[in-house]
Amino acid sequence: MSSAQFQTFDADLSLTSQTDCENSAREILTKLRPEWKSPEITFEYFSVGITNKIFSAGFGTEHVIFRVFGHNTNKVIDRENEVIAWKQLAEYGFAAPLYGKFNNGLICGFLEGKSLAIEQMRDSKFNMNIAKRIAQLHSSVPTNGKTPVFEKMRTFLQQLNPSFEKESQQNFFHENFPTDLGAEISKIEKMIVMLKEPIVFCHNDLLVHNIVYDSEKKSIEFIDYEYAFPNYALYDIANHFCEYAGVEGSPDYSKCLTKDEKWAFINDYLRFSNGKEHSDTRIATMFKNLLLFEAAAHLFWAVWALVQAQNSTIDFDYLTYAHARYQQYQKRLHKYISKIEH
Known about the structure:
Pfam families: Choline_kinase (PF01633)
Shape: globular
Number of strands: 11
Largest sheet: 6 strands, mixed
GO cellular component, one term: cytoplasm
CATH class of the largest domain: Alpha Beta
Radius of gyration: 20 Å
EC number: 2.7.1.82
GO biological process, one term: phosphatidylethanolamine biosynthetic process
Strand order of the largest sheet: 1-5-6-4-3-2
CATH superfamily of the largest domain: Aminoglycoside phosphotransferase (APH), C-terminal lobe
Enzyme class: transferase
Order of helices and strands: EHEEEHEEEHHHHHEEEEHHHH
CATH architecture of the largest domain: Alpha-Beta Complex
């Protein structure tokens, strides 16, 4: 994709009024797709994320996707990084082309297919294809071998106000979280760095809505690269494993993959990685380290959700969600430490 095709529009799309939103989108399309006849443009809404409004604009058989950012999401998402990562991923065939940006969002190409359901994600057929696509992503996109994951957690923490507006929230925060979350980040960072696990280009948010299946091509694609950056390969896998608990309401961690299923997934991942080391010893090492990376992923989203609890205008109980993730962080960390001590 050449940068010449990428356009910037001075427009804000409404998150609350559908009419205003569509009028602004039509305005943008007169420049982006001048051959489209405005009255014949159709809109379809997909929004399932807990931070964005996503819809498609179509004319005939052609479609483009508009992603409107939620209020204050720039506090948890590095929007400049998102565009850079997206363009890089599109170049290597891992993302739809990016056509342009407006003041509070992006316009991109349309990927055929439907987001998976949790039940499908568990199905061995899909499961193997997800492992394969993660392996392809990790093997294809170059990185500088460094990860900003802990830096990003600290950036979230800087955005967190120790005083919540509501007294009930304040009490809940005090009862369920440590006073020094920064110390938790440093503790897990120290442990992870020592493991010297490979750093690759990662999606970092492989939840069910971000995994699309094209039934005609029988292929898996990933969407939504808001959190894509170089990271530990094992973090991406561990983070994906945490997402089997679901995102609607309270996550149910009893739904996560069993040990055997995780082992099989890691085996598939290594099998599809470009000539990378694939042996029982490597699987065993990854499997042992997995708990620590699951803990790190839970901590990342716990701190993220605390910031969202103070900033998001979306009707979602971020504070309870943060607590659920923090509890899982503690459980996994404790389990990992007790395993390596025995």
